[in-house]
Recover the amino acids of this structure.
């Protein structure tokens, strides 16, 4: 199984929106509604931000939203804030109790 | 509140076996609703799923690591463990343990341990 493809970087000014894509295949992202997104600040463990494509865990601001179309999932962060500057990783279930992560995207708040 | 904590040697010699343990607190590892997983992150690189285990002992491994990985569980200690043999410098990474959770099927990782850096070097 190959890593899901994400853009290396994305950026936006405070208050703007940024959208990160996560492209897989018909065997993972395209087949299952089991895509999750993780936010990772430097030196910290990842933290789930979106699960099952578009669901937000309690405590995660509604500025974070997720969607999926075909083999590509997306994470949108609206109303960017300084604390949103971090690395973001997608993950997908890939069948047979296997999981695959994305290549990661560094989000910069300008 | 469920918490996970990795422990083990921070330095392993090439060709030897990397061994880590994840201790779960604030909940039972024997809950039938979850799996338990290991994920690693080489310095400056992305995340890689290593494998997962169910409390019954059923294991699932990343095909790219399957020949070198063993994950086990000790329900009496509320712990699960990772062994990776024949390590090389490419196995240098921060190793995380995490619960694999889901409403109807385990499919996302939460919470995570703080991670432990393992360096492979002579």
């Amino acid at each position: 199984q190959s890593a899901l493809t994400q853009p290396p970087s994305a950026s936006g000014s405070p208050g703007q929106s940024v959208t990160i894509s996560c492209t897989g295949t018909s065997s993972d992202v395209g087949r299952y509604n089991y895509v999750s997104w993780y936010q990772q600040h430097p030196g910290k463990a990842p933290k789930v931000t979106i699960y099952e494509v578009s669901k937000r865990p309690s405590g995660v601001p509604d500025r974070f939203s997720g969607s999926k179309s075909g083999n590509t999932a997306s994470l949108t962060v609206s109303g960017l804030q300084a604390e949103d500057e971090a690395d973001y990783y997608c993950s997908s279930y890939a069948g047979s109790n296997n999981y695959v992560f994305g290549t990661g995207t560094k989000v910069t708040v300008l | 509140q469920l918490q996970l904590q990795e422990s083990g040697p921070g330095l392993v010699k090439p060709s030897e076996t990397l061994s880590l343990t994840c201790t779960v607190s604030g909940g039972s590892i024997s809950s039938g609703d979850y799996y338990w997983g290991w994920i690693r992150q080489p310095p400056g690189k992305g995340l890689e799923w290593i494998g997962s285990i169910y409390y019954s002992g059923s294991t699932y491994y990343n095909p790219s690591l399957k020949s070198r990985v063993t994950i086990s569980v000790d329900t009496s200690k509320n712990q699960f463990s990772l062994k990776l043999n024949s390590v090389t410098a490419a196995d240098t990474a921060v190793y995380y343990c995490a619960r694999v959770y889901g409403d109807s099927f385990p499919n996302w990782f939460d919470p995570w341990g703080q991670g432990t850096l393992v360096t492979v070097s002579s």
